[in-house]
Predict the 3D structure of the following.
Amino acid sequence: MNKEREKVKAKRRWVIKIGSALITDNGCGLKHNVLDNWVNQISVLNERGIDIVIVSSGAVAEGLTRLGWKDRPNIVSKLQAAAAVGQMGLIQAYEVCFQKYNKHTAQVLLTHDDIADRVRYLNARTSLNTLLQLNVIPIVNENDTVATDEIRFGDNDTLAGLVANLIDAELLVLLTDQKGLYTSDPSKNESAEFIEKAEANDPALIGYAGESNTQGRGGMRTKLKAASIAAKSNTDTIITSGNEKSTLLKIADGNIVGTLLTTPKETLSARKQWLANQSHVKGTFTVDSGAVVALERSGKSLLPIGVKSITGEFKRGEMVSCADENGKEIARGLSNYNSTQARLIIGKSSKDIQTLLDCAEEDEIIHRDNMILL
């Protein structure tokens, strides 16, 4: 046991993501005996005083089986239907398994809107924390039935990283059908080296990741993204195989299992975490070199005089990107002005806003408290 794994033993709040490949029979319904094994381990961890939130895949695969469909459809409405039908079977299976161990569960369905809207984000955070205080085990999934873009672009790895932020988890465990992260695909390269430990935000890691499998929507790339998201709340991540016996218990005992992705020492505030995880950018401010220095080195707000041009249409309070003159994104933040107003004041001094707009709600076009550097 090494020092980093010894620290894992002390972590008392986990998010566990279980992938489709682990709990479905090659996409043909749920493997109930395997699911019961996971529930057994999670129940043991819970008895040890560890708070657990589960992010589980498998709903669409279960829905396909219940509907008698052999192939995953490409039509969004049919995917939504499969998700709706499959959620019933997935949650029913978890509930039956956890009842054997006298554990209460709760179903929590989230969409990107629940993360993007600050009030809904805080409500979701409060709900999950309340369930954990009541010793209930939440089972979280994307609300595929109503959220079109989740089915097209979402994945439960990313969702798990966001949930780790929501509850200030200490550990994110991403269970997959691989031992962990390698320097290349071990099935294609015999000399591929296993990575036991790395920093979650190490840019070299993305070069090692492969593509997604056929049943799930994620892959090693999405797991690295999830680890990077989780790192914003100082959450370490372990990517490991779910095919190994007693994987979760081994992790809790401090054994070297899977790839451990550690976090930087600095942790973002809850508001900065929320800002950093917003994916729906409505527009872009191209800023001059002086503004880049002010933002990156001095921690200043973005003033209108530092903005050279604007693309996109957005409302006051919506997320916009800040890019340098070469197109490199350097920050994101909430605009104090809508796109029409912003176009009238860019390149101007803040003292001119009143004259140009007949109002001067803010001197800054993005305040530093509503901005995250990338």
